[in-house]
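User: quick one, fold this
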Amino acid sequence: MEARLNLFTNQIAGKVVRHLNAAGKAIAESPLPAATQELIKIRASQINGCGFCTDMHTKDAAHAGETSVRLNLIAAWREATVFTDAERAALELTEQGTRIADAAGGVTDEAWADAAKYYDEDQLAALVSMIAIINAYNRVNVMIQMPAGDYQPGQFG
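Assistant:
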C-alpha cells in the first residue's frame, strides 16, 4: 500500500508538515508530561482511525517506557484503573476536543474544569494545542491513506 500523496517530496505538503512539526516541538518542550502527550496522541489517533499515527505513537510511547498494559487500555480508559486522575482528565478533553462535531456545545465546562484541576495554564495551552495538532496529522494521514505498521521509534528525528 502506498500513500496517495508523498508528504516528504511534495513542496506544499512538506512545508505544512514542517510547520506542524515545529508546533509539536514547542509542545514537547512544554511542562505537559511526556507520557500524557503520548496518551493524547494515541487516543485521538484511535478515534480518528489513523493507523499511521496510532502505530507511531504507541511505538514511541513503548520505547519511552510506557507499559503494554496502559497502551492496551487507552481505548477503554474509563474502565481502566491504570491511569491517574490527571491523565483521565486529559483523555476526556482529548475525546471531546476530537469529537467536536458530535456535541453541539463542543467541549463541556465540566471537562475543562476537570482538566484545569490538574494542569496549569501553560499545561492547558499545551494540552489544547496537542489535541489540535494530532487531529490535523490524523486527518492528513487518513485522507492520503498513509500506510501503518512500519514505523520505527525515532524514525523522524
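User: anything notable?
Assistant: The CA atoms of residues 21 and 64 lie 19 Å apart.
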